[in-house]
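Q: Mind making up any chain with structure tokens?
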Amino acid sequence: MATDTRDAAPRASRPARAGGRRRTSPLRFCREVVAELRKVIYPGRSELITYVVVVLIFVSVMTAIVASIDFGVTKLVLAVFG
């Protein structure tokens, strides 16, 4: 006896939008983006310099760690496989 699975599973309906709201126009979207950007508090010069220095130090340390691991693995592979 063959089974017909064509209509066995219910069809997935379209997912509902969050809150049931309709899609906004591109102009309204841009206005809302500008309104949100006005609320942003940007860092001052001293904070920005501090953040840049911290990032540069972190990236330098991580680069040194990865480079040393790479150097060690390279030496190990060359020692094993010649």
The chain has a mean pLDDT of 87. The CA atoms of residues 66 and 72 lie 10 Å apart.
